[in-house]
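F.,

This is the one I mentioned.
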């Protein structure tokens, strides 16, 4: 069993108003780490026996204090990488050296599984103390090993990520916080160990990480951090698209994504990362009133999140945020004071594709999000149920496997404050879902295909493989969408009639 976490002399004194909460959080962290004693204790014993220091550090300590620690564990040590590899050998299940040039050794350790439950895999990263310098052109550090824990902590991004727990022999755990990370955590504040100007010049990605931590933790930026991002936002262009994309995904999957997006927009960071979002802040004049598209989009995102089933849905969240990005480019002031955004879903889908390609998203992700943006207005043609069964089939077919997400997106897109109108819209969508369910009982809407396959088409029409077969297949597909399933004889007759008209 691990011993209770002890304070050491490097900590700042408790503030009277937060001392009780501080002790409560430390006690909770100690309990969390005790639950990991089958990993932490033997690992600490190995390093202590070899005469080396070992600390749990960074986000792992922060999350332990917040009661949200997962199975990814970060450590720092005075041992050099080769010695770390030696100490891990024979104890971990797997280890690899992909980060060894930066002083990091990674490993996987499985525990449990003897009590009938599935074993748990812990991902371990152990990094030698670092005291890096940066060239301030790229974000790549000139790796320099440090001589002390303090050297290592002061180079970290934020003070809440610069707390550590010393792990010693016989289960010793000692909390150490030379930079006041616990004070920031208690205040819900993000501040940097050094000045934010120095920190962000070293690694501009930290500016985007600030917005991401606002989303994940619900914290706010220290004023000096906010001001530094405003002044230095353009430096984010030093960062590769892939790293920006990773941070954006973590932000939008956070517990408070609206706050994180607001930070990007308010500081000007979004102008360099995803400018289509701040562009939705359309100017409203007294003669042509319309919704604040930016605020509307955040509300849709919030309502889409409320409709999620289980884990956060990255595709749905991106589609909700971007569904109206085509409005600025399609805004027209109409006579009489109205405003129109004709075909903004078409323009928005193209803009979504362009931006997501620039951010190096996968083709599948780009296709899914842009298709949801493209389809989000289709429902409004349904009226009071005037759609034919053919139109319902086409709606389902065009959505394909995205249909459950499209249902959520369309429902989330209702942000009117008029309760009667909102209830009517939801009732109308209830009706279209019921129509889809009834048709699905009669036919396979998930796979609407022609009633004859390509081989039958070639046999009936005496064709060889080629464009004519494809055109015939498409004719039968459209016929199937319009009329529903046909008998074999009906399909053959329609195909022959169509083909005769092509000659």
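My design for it:
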């Amino acid at each position: 069993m691990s011993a209770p976490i002890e304070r050491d002399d490097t900590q700042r004194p408790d503030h009277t108003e937060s001392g009780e909460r501080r002790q409560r959080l430390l006690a909770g962290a100690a309990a969390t780490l005790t639950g990991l004693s089958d990993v932490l204790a033997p690992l600490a014993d190995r390093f202590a026996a070899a005469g080396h220091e070992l600390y749990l550090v960074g986000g792992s300590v922060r999350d332990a204090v917040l009661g949200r620690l997962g199975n990814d564990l970060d450590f720092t040590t005075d041992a050099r990488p080769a010695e770390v590899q030696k100490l891990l050998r024979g104890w971990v299940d797997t280890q690899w050296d992909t980060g060894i040039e930066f002083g990091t050794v990674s490993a996987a350790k499985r525990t449990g599984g003897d009590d009938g439950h599935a074993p748990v895999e812990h991902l371990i990263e152990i990094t030698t103390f670092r005291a890096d310098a940066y060239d301030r052109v790229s974000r790549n550090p000139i790796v320099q090993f440090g001589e002390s824990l303090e050297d290592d902590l002061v180079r970290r991004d934020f003070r809440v990520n610069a707390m550590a727990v010393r792990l010693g022999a016989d289960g010793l755990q000692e909390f150490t916080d030379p930079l006041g990370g616990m004070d920031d955590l208690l205040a819900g504040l993000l501040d940097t160990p050094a000045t934010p100007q120095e920190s962000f010049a070293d690694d501009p990605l930290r500016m985007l990480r600030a917005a991401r931590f606002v989303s994940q933790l619900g914290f706010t930026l220290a004023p000096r951090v906010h001001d530094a991002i405003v002044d230095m936002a353009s430096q984010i262009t030093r960062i590769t698209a892939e790293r920006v994309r990773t941070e954006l995904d973590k932000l939008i999957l956070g517990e408070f994504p609206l706050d994180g997006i607001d930070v990007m927009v308010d500081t000007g960071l979004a102008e360099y990362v995803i400018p289509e979002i701040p562009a939705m802040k359309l100017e409203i004049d007294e003669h042509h009133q319309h919704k604040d598209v930016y605020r509307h989009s955040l509300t849709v995102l919030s309502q889409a999140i409320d409709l999620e089933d289980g884990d956060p849905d990255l595709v749905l969240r991106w589609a909700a945020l971007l569904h109206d990005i085509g409005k600025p480019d399609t805004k027209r002031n109409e006579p009489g004071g109205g405003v129109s955004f004709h075909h903004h879903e078409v323009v928005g889908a193209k803009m979504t594709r362009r931006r997501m390609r620039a951010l190096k998203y996968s083709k599948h992700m780009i296709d899914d999000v842009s298709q949801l943006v493209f389809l989000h207005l289709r429902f409004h043609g349904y009226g009071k149920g005037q759609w034919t069964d053919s139109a319902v089939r086409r709606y389902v077919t065009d959505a394909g496997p995205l249909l459950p997400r499209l249902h959520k997106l369309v429902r989330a897109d209702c942000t009117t404050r008029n309760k009667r109108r909102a209830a009517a819209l939801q009732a109308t969508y209830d009706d279209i879902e019921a129509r889809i369910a009834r048709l699905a009982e009669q036919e396979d809407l998930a796979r609407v295909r022609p009633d004859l396959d390509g081989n039958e088409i070639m046999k009936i029409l005496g064709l060889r493989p080629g464009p004519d077969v494809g055109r015939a297949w498409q004719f039968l597909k459209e016929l199937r969408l319009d009329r529903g399933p046909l008998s074999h004889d009906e399909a053959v007759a329609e195909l022959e009639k169509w083909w005769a008209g092509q000659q």
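Residues 449-502 form one domain.

Talk soon.
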